[in-house]
Structure formats: C-alpha cells, structure tokens
Specification:
Layout: E1 2-9, H1 13-24, E2 30-33, H2 62-76, E3 79-81, E4 85-89, E5 94-99, E6 103-114, E7 118-120, H3 123-126, E8 136-138, H4 139-149, E9 156-160, H5 164-175, E10 179-185, H6 194-201, E11 208-210, E12 212-218, E13 225-230, E14 243-246, E15 249-252, E16 256-258, H7 261-266, E17 290-292, H8 303-321, E18 332-336, E19 340-344, E20 347-348, E21 356-363, E22 367-376, E23 379-389, E24 395-400, H9 401-404, E25 411-418
Parallel strand pairs: 1-2, 1-6, 2-3, 6-17, 8-15, 9-10, 9-15, 10-11, 18-25
Antiparallel strand pairs: 4-5, 5-6, 7-16, 12-13, 13-14, 18-20, 19-21, 21-24, 22-23, 22-25
C-alpha cells in the first residue's frame, strides 16, 4: 500500500490548481493521477484564446493557461503519474489504479480530491433517428482531431447544439477551410456564452436555428445529408418545417456530463440536477475526507471559475489532513427555486466560513431586468439586480459571514424575481 496525504484524481485545470494549493497550505506528500499522456486536460486542445482574463488579467490560449500551472506543479516537486487509470476508490479513501509501468497499484490517501472533469453526451443520449454512417462526432472529439492529432474531420458540416465547444468548432472548422452550413439548437436559447455566439457564428455568417433539432441522418458509409426541423414547446418536431442539408459531417454539441463513475463506486451522493457531487462550503462530498472540484461537480463556462473553486478544495483538503477542520457543525441546506436550476455549494457550515462564500448558480431560461433574492428561513438576506441572465453563463453571489450569522438559518434559498417597471 502506497500512502499519501492527498491524492488528486485528474490532471486538468481543476486537479492542477487543487494540488498546488494543497502544497501551498503545507501538505508535502501529494500524488496527482492523470489518465492521459500529458497534464492539462481539455485545455491542451483548446488552442483559441479567451482564457485567464480573471485569474491572470490577460488573454491566454488553453495550452498557455495549462502550462503556467504545469510548470508551477513541477517546480514545487509534486509527484504525478501519467497514463494511469484509477479503477476504484472506496469510502476509506483507498484507491486502485493501473498503468503499464507500475501495474496495479493500491494507494491510501488521508484525503482525496476528485477532479475528473466531464464528458460529452453522445448520439445515443439524444436519440437522433436515421442511419449510422461515419462522420458523426462529438464536438470535443472533433476538436482533438483537428487541434492535436492534425486530422480534418469533414468539408460540409452541420452542428447540433450550441454549447461553447460546438460554437468554437464552428469557427475553427471555417478557418480550416470547411463550410459550416448551420448550427441547430433544440432550446429557444443558446447554451453557450454570448461572446462565442458573436465571435464564432455571427462574425462568420453561420446561421443559428433555435428551437430546431436533427430529425434524420442519411448515408451508408459516410454521412450524405442531415435534415433538421423546428420543434414545439414540448420539443416535438413540427411537420412541414424540415430543412435538408447535403453534408459529410454532423457534430454533436449536446451537453456535458460530470465524470462521476468513481464517485458512484465510492457511494458519494450526487445532485440530480447537476449530475455532480453534492458538496459543502469546503468542497467536501458526502464522504468525509473526499473533496471534489471543477467540472466533476458542475459544468463551468470559464476555466477561471474552475481554478478558483479548485483552490478552495485544495486548501480545505490540506486543513482536513492537518486536523484543522471538523464536520461537527450545524449544516444549512442551500437550494435554487423559481428560475434558479441549482446552487453550488448545496450545503453550508457557517463556522467554516472566514469572511464570505460565493454561491454559484445557473438559471433555467433567459431573463431580463431581474433580481436574485437570497433568503434564509424565508426571510430576505440580500438581493442582487441583473439586467440580463442566461443558462449558458454561471452567476455568482457573494454572501458575507455577517449576513450568514444574523440569524440561525436552517435553509437558504436563491430565486429570481422580476423587476417592477
């Protein structure tokens, strides 16, 4: 049995930030495990800029952002293993992992930080009718082929879903000489950032069809044509609204799912809305000593928010290992209602808050001129005005320790209220 103070599973932006922060908080024996051939995670294939505006106050590409943390990790001498797959974790924080050099490894951690990221939904998850030819890829897979492996994936392309990866690939493929014929989105609003809609679609005259989905795929060996149609409020295709596009490739950008098979194996409680772990203010899961951060908790829109959240997990895990934290405090439940889909964290122990806590949330629709109302036991704690909110962008509300200790709360809720004219 190999013993470590903290074991971090995942070497993407979340795992890197968490491991570095744990070292900065006095933990010496840390192991980071990554299943890919290099550190950096999804950032290595995100060669576009726009990263680091909040953390570094400058615009970086994905690999540039990752490299800053990789070099810091190496400089600190934090141990890491590449090409290593974790196949099991237990409630007792025992890890079974495997690679071609060490074989099967049994690792004991005083604390574990889960940073496995997320995966893409596939064609099977959205039940698209039609044949099953080559040329149907997820947007992230296409991004890896084009940006890292050097393969062009098609010449005439349809994209289903307006998530950020799909929007970015619309621009990327256009720059590589392909013709992106259309982006179809089943919802009446885009799931991506506004800046990506403008910079990746509008700037290149790529049409976005909202409230549309794919109703047929043609082709035997290779995609030959794709038909989209408008959908009603129940997402049912409307006959007579079909549009047929002759193409050779269909990209799917239909959502991301937190990668939580290991969490389920350990018996960690998951949130039905986010698909990620239920966490408290310290990013600790339902199992003591196991923490989670980044897209394995909930899907973020900016890597800067992943880094901030993961620093909190790393610092909290360090406090746990050093015996400086305790779970024997009153727990407050936090929930989103009336337009707020979810709030992270879902649990809060006031005595573990030093100055303030950031509540991160997503809304369920596009709203204009609204107020976020935060209530404790039904009484208003604070309100925040917003001119525009959308499901594609995370909203953050800071709650100070003074606001939390004003009353002895059992429950905190966040809701949307329309501003009066």
């Amino acid at each position: 049995m190999n013993n470590y103070e903290i074991v971090v599973i995942g070497g993407g932006p979340a795992g890197l930030a968490a491991a570095i922060e744990a070292r900065k908080n006095g933990v010496k024996k840390i192991l980071l495990i990554e299943r890919d051939r290099e550190l950096g995670g999804i950032l290595q294939q995100c060669i576009h800029n726009g990263f680091g505006l909040h953390i570094f106050k400058e615009e970086l590409t994905g690999p540039e952002y990752a490299e800053r943390y990789i070099q810091e990790l190496i400089t600190m001498g934090i141990e890491y293993k590449l090409n290593t797959m974790v196949i099991e974790i237990t409630k007792n924080r025992q890890i079974t992992a495997i690679n071609t050099i060490d074989g099967i490894m049994h690792i004991q951690g005083k604390a574990i930080i889960l940073a496995m990221g997320c995966r893409e939904r596939t064609r099977g998850a959205v039940r698209i009718p039609g044949t099953r030819p080559a040329g149907i890829l997820t947007a992230g897979m296409a991004q890896r082929f084009v940006n890292m492996e050097g393969y062009m994936i098609g010449k005439r392309i349809i994209i289903l879903g307006s998530g950020d990866i799909g929007l970015i690939m619309a621009r990327r493929l256009t720059l590589e000489g392909a013709q992106v014929l259309a982006v179809a989105e089943i919802m009446p609003f885009s799931g991506g950032l506004t800046r990506n809609i403008v910079q990746c679609l509008e700037d290149y005259n790529i049409p976005l069809f909202l409230s549309h989905t794919v109703v047929d795929i043609e082709g035997q060996d290779r995609v030959k044509a794709v038909t989209i149609a408008k959908v009603d409020k129940n997402s049912i295709p409307i006959k007579g609204t079909e549009k047929r596009f002759e193409c050779d490739t269909l990209l799917l950008s239909v959502g991301l799912i937190p990668e939580n098979e290991l969490s389920k194996c350990a018996g960690i409680e998951l949130d039905k809305v986010t698909g990620g772990s239920i966490v408290n203010e310290s990013m600790e899961t339902s199992i003591e000593g196991i923490f989670a951060c980044g897209n394995v908790v909930h899907v973020h829109d900016l890597v800067d928010w992943v880094t901030e959240e993961s620093k909190r997990a790393g610092k909290s895990a360090a406090k746990y290992v050093k015996g400086e934290s305790t779970g024997r405090y009153k727990v407050i439940n936090i929930k989103g209602i009336n337009g707020v889909r979810y709030v992270i964290p879902q649990l809060l122990r006031v005595k573990n808050i030093t100055e303030s806590i950031n509540l991160m949330m997503r809304v369920d629709n596009i709203y204009k001129n609204i107020k976020f109302i935060v209530k404790g036991n039904g009484q208003k704690i604070k309100e925040i005005k917003r001119a525009h909110v959308a499901p594609g962008e995370i909203e953050t509300i800071k709650i100070t320790l003074n606001e939390l200790t004003y009353r002895d709360y059992n429950e905190i809720s966040v809701e949307i209220v329309k501003e009066e004219a």
